[in-house]
Amino acid sequence: MSAKLDALKSDSYTEISQYRDQHFKGNRYEQEKLLKQSNTLYVGNLSFYTTEEQVHELFSKCGDVKRIVIGLDKVKKTACGFCFVEYYTRGDAENAMRFVNGTRLDDRIIRTDWDAGFKEGRQYGRGKSGGQVRIKALISCALTF
């Protein structure tokens, strides 16, 4: 009977995905631990024209947003399709994972994922030219884990 009730506690929307940041400084265990207690989300598939204000308007519906860091092209310093959203509490970040992931912002379906925490320098895209990595490359990286 208790096994059936445990399924009710499961919340697949807030589970940690299989994707891991390949540039994380530390081992897999440390990264996993940080992801499980993080208040920071990675937001992907943003339009290059989406503003910080638009991101704040959407994500603040789930709780108090501490800060937003828009991803930039390393060379041109222009937006390149992703950002980090940091909340004050884990509960607010979980609400964003539940309710914002897969919604439309600026005419694009955005995706959210847990992030181990923003550190300076991570706001720059990692593509060859300093822009964001193509989605195919992200998918293939995620499948290798």
UniProtKB/TrEMBL annotation:
Source organism superkingdom: Eukaryota
Entry protein name: Nuclear cap-binding protein subunit 2
Pfam family, one: RRM_1
SMART domains: RRM
Entries under Gene3D superfamilies matching the protein: 3.30.70.330
Compartments it resides in: Nucleus
UniProt key word Nuclease: no
InterPro entries in the record: NCBP2 (IPR027157), NCBP2_RRM (IPR034148), Nucleotide-bd_a/b_plait_sf (IPR012677), RBD_domain_sf (IPR035979), RRM_dom (IPR000504)
Key word Transport present: yes
Protein purpose: Component of the cap-binding complex (CBC), which binds co-transcriptionally to the 5' cap of pre-mRNAs and is involved in various processes such as pre-mRNA splicing, translation regulation, nonsense-mediated mRNA decay, RNA-mediated gene silencing (RNAi) by microRNAs (miRNAs) and mRNA export. The CBC complex is involved in mRNA export from the nucleus, leading to the recruitment of the mRNA export machinery to the 5' end of mRNA and to mRNA export in a 5' to 3' direction through the nuclear pore.
Stated family: Belongs to the RRM NCBP2 family.
Alphabetically ordered keywords of this record: mRNA processing, mRNA splicing, mRNA transport, Nonsense-mediated mRNA decay, Nucleus, RNA-binding, RNA-mediated gene silencing, Transport
Chief location of this protein within or outside the cell: nucleus
Membrane-traversing stretches: none
Subunit annotation: Component of the nuclear cap-binding complex (CBC), a heterodimer composed of ncbp1/cbp80 and ncbp2/cbp20 that interacts with m7GpppG-capped RNA.
Start and end residues of each RRM domain: 39-117
